[in-house]
Each structure stands twice: as structure tokens, then as C-alpha cells.
Amino acid sequence: MSFSPNRPGKKRYRYRIANAPRFIAVIMLFLLVLTAIFVIAAKSEDEPSQKGAVVVTPIVYPTPDPDPTPPPIDIPEGKVMEPVLVVIDAGHGGEDGGTISPYKEGFYEKDITLSMAEKVAEYLKEKGIDVILTRDGDYRFSASNREDLLTRANIANENKASLFVSIHVNAYDLKYAGAAAVNGMEVYYMEKDGVYTEFTDERFAQLLNDEIVKANGIKSNGVKQNNYSVLRNTQMPAVLIETAYITNKEDHARLASEEFRSNTARGIVQGIELALKEIDAFEYNGDMYVFKEAKE
Ligand SMILES: [Zn+2]
After folding, report:
1. Out of 3.40.50.150, 3.40.630.40, 3.40.50.300, 3.30.420.40, which CATH number does the structure's domain 79-293 have?
2. Ligand 1 centre from 191 Cα, in Å?
3. What pTM, to 2 d.p., does this model score?
């Protein structure tokens, strides 16, 4: 209301407070511009040296963080990668001679099986396939048959064998009419929870059967299922081969010949090689490996 009398004072008052913020704002703006100039100046100073570094970097550090080890193999889920190892079991040994020749004194199954097993091991080694013989001499692991057989299976299990082959010689009780005529080979397996997804005990038996027949020309009586201890107690595909009948004269002559034993061993190795192909054995750092089901 009393506009006029207050005017000069008010004017002065308004002048001071109205212009102080404006003054501060001007100074702030000035400082801001100054800061901006410094930042730009600093940046433009950095730029040349950065540009220089960019040129030099690829020459000084061509491969940052070089890794000397080769890239690891991708292990599929639920699998473990283990070295390929074949366990060959020469049936019987020591006090347990196995089947006995009715035609030749001192001609025992245990000696024939060891001789064949040693040949198989030799041929596998030639092909770079690791092998363990359950026994490498004339002995058995226990006076108890049960314990002896369990030990053989455990050798394969403890060494995480990829495949197991037990070599035997058959006999037919000559008390029975026509017994001496019984001849040929049988390959036994027992289907069990395998360490491979698709490769079965039966498939392994079939491969060995076919390759042995091709290699030594023997008549096969077929691939059969049987609950033998070494088949039941091994954790990997396993077979038991009854290579021929010691009670049959023709088979007896075969078993006594180096050629038949070598050819049989060659057939077994051929079958093992095919089996390793089917379970996808692969080379890694010079060694052979397989993927197995991860089990406790
Ligand atoms: Zn036997």
C-alpha cells in the first residue's frame, strides 16, 4: 500500500540481494568454463601419448596372457575321462590246472590260456593299447575258487579297465556218448549296468566272436549269456572265451599249435580294437582315453 515511501530503500535492498545470486552464478559459470577448459586441455595432452601407446601395444604385448597348456577336453555331463586299459585274464593257474588233456600228459588249460593271454598282451602293446594281465605266471590268487575269481575281477575294477577278456579252454565229459565230437568256441557275457551309454557286454562278445572266427577259422557255437563270477563282478564290458575243446581231437591239435594260439590272440585284439572304436576311444596328448559314466 505505502508504495512510494518504501521505494528507495526497497529498491536498494532488492538491488543487493537480487544481484548477489546472479554474481555467484556468473562466477560459478566462469569456474565451470575454466574447469571445462582444463579438462579439455588435459585430455588433448593425454591423447598424443595414448595414440602412441596404441601403436606400440600390439608390438610389445602381442598375446596378452599366453596359456602354455593346451585347451582341456570338454567332458560331457555325467561322464568321466579315463585312460584306455584292457585287462586280459588267463584262466586258472597254479594248483588249478583247469581242463586236462585226455590225449597228452601234462597238457593243461592253465598253460594254454597263459600263452594266449601273453600273445594278446604283446599284440595290444604293439598297437599302443595299454594292457594288464591278471596273472603273468603259473599261480593262482587263492586256494578258494571264489576268492581267486574275485581277485581277477577286482584287478580290472581297481585299474578302471575299459574292457575285460578272460581266456579259457573247454572240455566235455567223455563219459557221455558223442562227447569227443563236441567242438568249437563259445563266447560268454553277462549283461549288467555298464560304464558306457550304448556299448553292451553282448555287443563286446559278438565283436570278439566274429573276429576270432575270422582269424582262426574255428566253428563258433555262438555268443551266450552266463552268470560267471568274472563277468558278474567286473564293472566294465567283459567276456569269457572258451576258445576250443581240449576233449575234441581236432580242437586239441589246434590248442597245441602256436599258429592257432597266435591267430586266436590276433582275433581277440581285432575285436578289442573294434570295441574301442564303438566306445569312441580317442587320443589325447598321445594317450588313448574313453568317456565313462560317472559312478560312485
Ligand atoms: Zn577254464
Report:
1. 3.40.630.40
2. 20
3. 0.77
